[in-house]
User: Fold this.
Amino acid sequence: MKRHKIYFLLIISILCYFGLIEKSYAINKDSKICKNVYIENIDVSGLTKSEAIDKINKLMCKNNNINLLYKDKNYNLKLEDVGFYYKVEEAVKKAHGVGRNKGLLSDLKTKMDLYFGEKVNFKLDVGYEKNKLETYIFNLAKDIYVSPINSEIKLSENKFKVSDEKNGVKLNKKELFNLLDKKIIDKDYSECYIPTSIITPKYTFEKLSKINTILGTYETEFNSKNKNRVNNITIATNKINNTLIDSNEKFSFNETTGKRDIEQGFKEAPIILNGKLELGMGGGICQVSSTVYNAALYSGLEIIQAKNHSIPSSYIQKGRDATVSYGNIDLIFENKFDSPILIQSKVENNKIISTIYGNHEDKKYIDIKTNIVETIPQEIIIKKSDKLYEGKTKVGEQGRRGYKVNTYRVYKNEDGSVTKEELINECYYPPKNKVIVKGTKKKHENLNRTNIKII
Assistant:
């Protein structure tokens, strides 16, 4: 009797097995999703792929927003504006694959587990267009940005007055992008605060308050008769006035004064070009650069670039001039001090006055010394001309001597004793030949018509 019972149970098990196989085959054949399969807790059991896609699309909200907070401002990021979408087809494909394509026994076990109550819930992944989020953040950054305001320093009645600075604000674009990217991918639509940073101004009250003494000053005189030259000198001087140079920063004359053209107000005046005086735009500003150069020398600033003229200047000693040409020759010096410096330049009583201010701890006692290393005589060139009679001569070009000049900066103690002497520049002023014109025209006797007798 017991043996019959075992046979009976075995037959029933075999029939159930083949019944489940048949059921499994039927499920595979009708392409419907198995029982107890969910996507984001939405039941898609017994649905075809297309039916599941339709159901998910209807129930999942695509018009989600993320509220962004900054102080008393409220910004709303509409996810549709960044191309937000759900990866529905991808999730449905996974859901449909449950109980399929892993082998008969494995698929059968999965279906039995689902049949007896086990659930499978798939996460619905999302996507968006990152370039659109970057554009949104870029525009948001412009709205939030607050420009910092530097402290200002003014000299009034021989006293410095320094204003307070104001901090600026900027949005941390990379940090906000990473924050929003994670929230979108995680489907976290809760509000969040916009990450920002304080922008400290370049010049603060504390920094500019260190400017408290004259480091060096220099002045040169000019002739006020040439109005165009005076105009150019005044414009260049004003552009330099109140220039701040921070610690370890360089001053460039050309960058500070800009291009010399009509738009900037410059006019034509005499300039030195190829060893000759000619009319040129911005003539006269080399006197401004030479004046500032000498103020920098007396201030102990490091000279990076300075070039003398090809002709010695009348307004300054040989070896102490600094020519400039926009886009070509520049005057550059560097502030190696720990504190900023202030350059003030002005035109007053036919003089250019340049003064450099800094911290009293950077004050040096300096003399500038020049040494004419060599005087180069001019050559005399004889040119013949048939426009002058024989025996006659005239000076075609006066010419000039040439010079080699070394410029030194001499550092001293307060008692006048020398502590250091440094070579600043080696200047060369080429000579110009003197031209003598010698006549070659022959002299002929003039016939007097009154002495001619006609026969």
About this structure: The chain has three domains: 130-207, 210-363, 365-455. The chain has a mean pLDDT of 87. The domain at 365-455 is CATH 2.20.230.10 (Resuscitation-promoting factor rpfb fold).
